[in-house]
Hints:
By secondary structure, this protein is of the alpha/beta class.
Amino acid sequence: MGMRIFKDESKLSLEYVPPVLPHRENELRLLKAFFSGILKGKQNISVRAIISGSAGTGKTAMAKLFGKQMEVEAKNKQMNLKYIHVNCRVNRTLFTILKRVVEYLKIPLPSRGYSTEELMHGLLNYLAENDLYIILALDDLEVLIKEEGSDPFYFLMKIGEDRDDRMSRLSFIFIVRNPEILNMLESGARVGMLSNIVHLPEYNAAQLYDILSYRASEAFFDNVILEESIRLIADLASERGDARYAIETLWRSGKYAEAEGCDIVTPEHVRKAAASIYPAIKKENLAYLSLHEKLILLAVTRALASNEKAYTTSSELNELYRLVCEEYKVQPKAYTRFWEYLQKLEDQGIIRIKVSSEGIRGRRSYITLPEIPVSILQHELTKLLEGGNVEL
Length: 392
């Protein structure tokens, strides 16, 4: 058996929030500026900020680090402030989100059934009585919007109008991949939401290298991982701009070295790790996609084949998808569902969605196929779709 590789493996887990987030200093500063009024005790309105960015740009980690730092600063000012992080994939409605907060704070509410409104008033009364401020982060907000549409946001506005005094104690961070999702809300519900946006651009290879070096120093013993192994992971991950993928590859590379009894993590371990996370897409994976995922993917291949572009936009893609549906005599899905399918395809590593920021109004999504030739994909999808698969 070689020497030990890991000093502290937990430093590479996705749950771990490091005390420093390289290359997010400016974004963190901006987020703090939005909430600075609370610490001055001058806050008489509820703050709402949005953190947006593609998968693996550090949205969750930054929100949690911000929350920790805010709690510490509040404590130094003898202020009572708590940061609460709720994931909407787990708590999918405003009611379950509020219930989660009430349980977290151990607020004694009657055990009989109560409404969202009663929960909210119970929470706000508790905050006022205990002179407590809350920053509530809702991660994966897309899921809440999918479940309940504009209602939760109208509800928050209405409560704010009813009880201006208390609402200022409850502030929000909304975490989304793409601010475009907010265009699905009715304009009334969107009011005041788009002013405080912190957008996290994708990391480049040099930034990923810094992030990986920092995490490696926390997780591995000294001189275990070769400089070129870190470089290789940074290069591989820079296609996605995705730090989560980079950190997982780093962890797996260490696991491969450990399993082979090596005392050094080499580029060969990195290649094995990378292949095990995202193998190039296989034909059978395509067969398991739902009908609409296949149709959207076919639309992607057409968009990219038509003029040999690297990217297509979401609106252009949606039009092509509708044409493809017509061709296969299938009813196209609404835009919200279309978006959801796109995100699923991205989660499976089949497509990439990049958000370019050209000012708030001009933010657009660009879609591309990173690791598969368009011609092959088109051929396979056409075969599958003509095989008459009618399952929806």
